[in-house]
Amino acid sequence: MPITDPVKLQIVYNRVLNKKVCRKCGALNPPTATKCRRCKSKNLRPKKGFKLK
What is residue 51's predicted lDDT score, i.e. its pLDDT? Predict the structure, then answer.
């Protein structure tokens, strides 16, 4: 069942999808990270997911 409430969508986005993923080791990092917490690589990408409307 899809979530249609915009407040709940924002909560889901911040809790689940607003992260960065290391391309080298796959570790999840905070959205403000500049380097990986596990392997210290600077090769980070935003986590894939849906876009907020």
Answer: 65
pLDDT digits (tens, 9 = 90+) for 1-53: 788 899 998 998 889 999 999 999 999 999 999 999 999 999 999 999 866 55
> Using an 8 Å Cβ cutoff, are 25 and 39 in contact?
yes
Residue 53 within any structural domain of the chain: no
Range of the domain at 30: 19-48
Inside any domain, residue 13: no
And the tokens for 26? 């796959």
Is 27 part of a structural domain of the chain?
yes
Q: How far is CA 21 from CA 8, 9, 15, 25, 51, in A?
A: 23, 21, 14, 8, 17
